[in-house]
UniProtKB/TrEMBL annotation:
GO molecular function (one): hydrolase activity
Biased composition, class Acidic residues, residue ranges: 519-528
The protein's name: DEAD-box ATP-dependent RNA helicase RhpA
InterPro entries: DEAD/DEAH_box_helicase_dom (IPR011545), DEAD/DEAH_RhlB (IPR044742), DEAD_box_RNA_helicase (IPR050079), Helicase_ATP-bd (IPR014001), Helicase_C-like (IPR001650), P-loop_NTPase (IPR027417), RNA-helicase_DEAD-box_CS (IPR000629), RNA_helicase_DEAD_Q_motif (IPR014014)
Region described as Disordered: spans on this chain: 371-528
Organism, as annotated: Nitrospirillum amazonense
Pfam family of the protein (one): Helicase_C
Domain DEAD-box RNA helicase Q: 1-29
Domain Helicase ATP-binding: 32-205
Signal sequence, renumbered to the chain: none
This protein's UniProt keywords: ATP-binding, Cytoplasm, Helicase, Hydrolase, Nucleotide-binding
Amino acid sequence: MLFSEIGLGPEVLRAVEDAGYSQPTPIQEKAIPWVLQGRDVLGCAQTGTGKTASFTLPMIDILASGRARARMPRSLILEPTRELAAQVAENFEVYGKYHKLNMALLIGGESFGDQIKKLERGVDVLIATPGRMMDLFDRGNILLSDIKILVIDEADRMLDMGFIPDIERIVGLLPKMRQTLFFSATMPPEIRRLADAFLMNPREITVAPPASPAATVTQAVAMVRGEDKREALRHLLRTEDVKNAFIFCNRKRDVAILHQSLTKHGFNAGALHGDMVQSKRTETLEQFRQGEIALLCCSDVAARGIDIAGVSHVFNFDVPHHADDYVHRIGRTGRAGKTGRAFMLATPDDGRTLDAIEKLIGREIPRIMIDGLETPDMSEGESEGGRRRRPARGASPRGDAKGPRRRGGSDAPRESQAAVEAAPQVEEVAEARRPERAERPERSGRDRDRGRNRDSRADAPRDVARAETRPPRQDDRGEPRRRWRDEDDGPSVVGFGDDVPAFMLRVARPAPRAATPETFEDADTPEA
């Protein structure tokens, strides 16, 4: 089927032809006719299949008739990340170049003033991330009462990033009569619940098994130790025919460390993660798109919807925590029917996560070996409960022939049974060799006095011993300070004792009453 056969207008068809496309993908072929009819659509397709064009192309045709008003956008597209929102905005510019549609991009890291000016001129298409969208709405710069089309893209990523409460609030502010398009690469139960709440009699479109990677991507996993991961990655980069590649890490800190390591070893690499300022993120992504950077070390901020043609490889430096993220990561290659290769570095601690990924995609990922590196045993990693396996009883923590360490921290093995049985005999020999008490030499007189004094001080109470050695304390008048522990002092003083402040001994007088007509009648003295 051709694009000309699915009902798009001539201006959109000409823009699609200028972009070099003639045949729609399966998700586009099934979704576009239903969107043009005004039906709600629930689309589920694997990443890299053209979901973005399946709603941008018909939206341009629908919005071609009509006029936008100030601060009242006619359509709203919600995206989870800034990069994905910017990419959708680029698609609108490419496919809508023969239409006079105004568009505004609301993402974090950009100036509020420029975005507010676009809203005041009136926009037909509003593309936003939920955070910046709610900021401008709370400031009164956006009115959502004229929204005709709502698009929620990458809904499963919205769930992972915690945007669902914001999405629910935004949907509650929109008109009830609207067209809603809901797209996601995976369909977990929570996303299904949201779809049932937001959509009205939707047309469900599924063109591929949920969470399935593209068949054009060749996958492999290398089992290495944690300290060998960088060396294994460098080996793969040198042996594979890498044109350009995404290298995914689980943590932002690891992205920066890996970027420095690759740069130190002479690789042309860049870094991309969520803590970078928006201008730097946009610049780095554009350099990678133009080929100025060959390797892009990134976090999962680049795992969704980033469409860069001709990416040859994807390397998972870390096994993703969620199995769905693996499908999205390797979906950056093998797009639009092209071939790609995806490698993952796994350690013994990643056993459970690797099993979850293979269960999700429905097949086992082939294992490969790295030359010069030892392949560890997966049984050394986590147990079924998610905790590290404890060494077996009688084995050392490192798995060698030594026994368990003793409580004092020593690596010496425990005593054998024979040594335990011989212990009484050793004690008898030691007792026989010990000299009798009566045979010890007699101490001199000075030593006897010194020991007697030491013993007497040790047997005496601590307070008495201190009193004998310390001079008596004196008060401010130079007299010896009394000790409350002496027997002649009697019971301990309660309260202030003898030193009662003088003001507390004064007789308190009642306060004078207010001067009212009633008090004047009862007063003893006549009125002044």
